[in-house]
Amino acid sequence: MSTQPDHSQNRPGERCSTATEAALLEQVCEALHEARPLQIQGGNSKAFLGRQIQADPLDTRSHQGIVNYDPTELVITVRAGTPLKQLEAILAEQGQVLGCEPPHLGDNATVGGMVATGLSGPRRPWSGSVRDFVLGTKVITGHGKLLRFGGEVMKNVAGYDLSRLMAGSFGCLGLLTEVSMKVLPKPRHERHLVLSCDQSTALQRLTEWAQLPLPITAACHYQDQLYLRLEGGEASVQHFADSLNGTALDPVFWQQLKEQQLPFFQNPKPLWRLSLPAHAGQLEPSDDCLIDWGGAQRWLKTDLPETQLRDIASQLGGHATCFTAGVTAQPFQPLPPLLMRYHQQLKAQLDPKGIFNPGRMYSDY
């Protein structure tokens, strides 16, 4: 008699489309049988984010490739282990881009890691977040089932919200094997400018501009310099650029900002991200601060205590996340009891044995 566990009753109606997907499902089923936690990983470019956990690695990088792509429909379906740079290169050949402008933060970033961390680049306030572009997913759940949620078109809404829940879940809800996403045409015209102004003036301008139909798709302020990216129709871009009387900026700036390669990020102090309402004023006390997302994202390099930083963020209607490993045992903002209960109930539904990235976001989640 075979000593191997029989997982045939756990298999869902959704069939594995590749041998690599079947292998991932088998690994999950074995972990479930042994009550053994798994640490989902792709390129590990964002492994520093969140709490460090002790679990057996489950590598997704063997499961890669484009499943379906019709440039005329502005939708692409791709496997989770696909290198992010490969996906972006394929889109670029068709004059298209990922609207959320996701950061790689390393050479080996994967599509699954992009969705799991939910991080977006400078374009986010004007185009949307990773979650906004997810149409559908295939997920291996903590029941040992491969399920499909959502679809490849906006009209197919069955399971749409559950697919979106995978964005920013840090692998705690299930193993993502495939994702369908909206993509955008590359902007027709662009200008990159830098203006001299202090932080208070920059925030005031950004608040005023946010009320107007202007072709801004990125706005960052640091050390009395306001950096702007203008994209869209030639006439509107040119007209607004002329009204600013700014200095030309090398567009590589936005890539360096997105990938945290600017000199600001090299400061040895811990890095914190404060997500705030765009109209929030200057931070007090004002430490080494870089403003992104038109005011909605503040990067701080600071030694201030985490309780003080989180109090500042909460008072302004936002939250604080630590982007430097080892600084705090609670990198993410603690959740109110009611919201944590909802998180735990969702986790219990999708991963009842708690095998997927246990404790990655919170110690009891």
Please give a structural write-up.
The longest helix is centred in the N-terminal third of the chain and has 16 residues. The strands form 5 sheets. This protein has a 5-stranded antiparallel sheet. Strands 11-12-10-13 form a 4-stranded antiparallel sheet. A 4-stranded antiparallel sheet has the order 15-16-14-17, with helices on one face. It starts with 18 loop residues before the first helix and ends in a 15-residue tail after the last helix. The protein folds into 2 domains: 217 residues, Uridine Diphospho-n-acetylenolpyruvylglucosamine Reductase, domain 3 (2-Layer Sandwich); 134 residues. With 365 residues, the protein is of the alpha+beta class.
Q: What's the quick description here?
A:
It is built from eleven helices and 17 strands. With 365 residues, it is α+β, with helices and mostly antiparallel strands. The chain folds into two domains: 1-186 and 335-365, Uridine Diphospho-n-acetylenolpyruvylglucosamine Reductase, domain 3 (2-Layer Sandwich); 189-322.
Number of strands: 17
Percent strand: 15-25%
Which runs of at least 5 residues are low in confidence (pLDDT < 50)? 1-13
Do you know the CATH topology of the largest domain?
Answer: Uridine Diphospho-n-acetylenolpyruvylglucosamine Reductase, domain 3
How many individual domains? Answer: 2
InterPro entries: FAD-bd_PCMH, FAD-bd_PCMH-like_sf, FAD-bd_PCMH_sub2, FAD-linked_Oxase-like_C, Oxid_FAD_bind_N
Protein name: Glycolate dehydrogenase, FAD-binding subunit GlcE
Domain FAD-binding PCMH-type: 11-186
Organism: Nitrincola lacisaponensis
